[in-house]
Amino acid sequence: MTQTEMPRTILTLLFLVITARLDEAQKSHECENVATSQEGLFDNPERLKILLKVFEKHIEMEKLNITLHFLENPIRPNVQISEAARIIAYYLEESCEENNWVHGKKVLELGAGLGFPGIVAACLGGNVTVTDRPQIVPYLQRSIDLNIETIQKISGEIRVEVLSWGDDEKIRSMPRQDIILLSEAIYDDLTIDDLISTMVRLSHDDTKIIVSEGDWIEMEESELKEAWTKFFHESSEYFEFSPLPIGNYDCFTFEGKVRKTSNTEEKTSESSPGHTEF
Ligand SMILES: *[C@@H]1O[C@H](CO)[C@@H](O)[C@H](O)[C@H]1NC(C)=O
Ligand SMILES: *[C@@H]1O[C@H](CO)[C@@H](O)[C@H](O)[C@H]1NC(C)=O
User: Over 3-22, what HEC string results?
Assistant: First the structure.
């Protein structure tokens, strides 16, 4: 360990401790109290603020001429900006440069985490709903709060909602969407059926789906790979996916369209897509 690495390591460990504490505190909305109670360890709250800067991400979107702000949580992978989220965000920005196909469209991000792609869609003038499980929603809300001025300047609309896949009552209350975004959302074999039924029920004939996943899915014998395979296998009854030609990234990115053959009865049906053996 070199001399410069040493303090970094110690700082990183301290960050982890603080973030874990902040995380707990946030649940009971005592964030500020906890920040000041760390004084003994970190002298003062100002210093703590400086330490926490390490987890701030300021992402420039060149074509949109904006900078977006996020606060990552280093101990929760789904509260970080993933490569897959970056790819969708940049893809939206780039592909809308000539012909903005997001403007005025209803956009839904599922399993949004910090909501980077959804926020970019709102900055492109989309009418966006970013969703995640209840325990992630506070982080998602913080991302929106950090960027709301930029979004509103561009006249986009965005809202955060709790959506657990397969929650019939919630899904029934939501409108069908023009664009559905999924980044690093496919991770668990057990949630795939609910995810697909949620997508089917929130899409219409012309809904476009963008899905991106890190290349870890290539790992042999990985459960994640199984989930990914299952997702494509079972969703192929409803959606037709084709790879998006996005180079230089360690991700698999696909665009999905609703199969014209899937009939309306299926789409409005309350039941989830059937299991298929393979
Ligand atoms: C980018 O935005 C800044 C203000 O945020 C503005 O001053 C500048 O003129 C903009 N640049 C372009 C090329 O629109
Ligand atoms: C945006 O979507 C929300 C919820 O789906 C809806 O209430 C609102 O009217 C929409 N806004 C526009 C401008 O269409």
Answer: CCHHHHHHHHHHHHHHHHHH
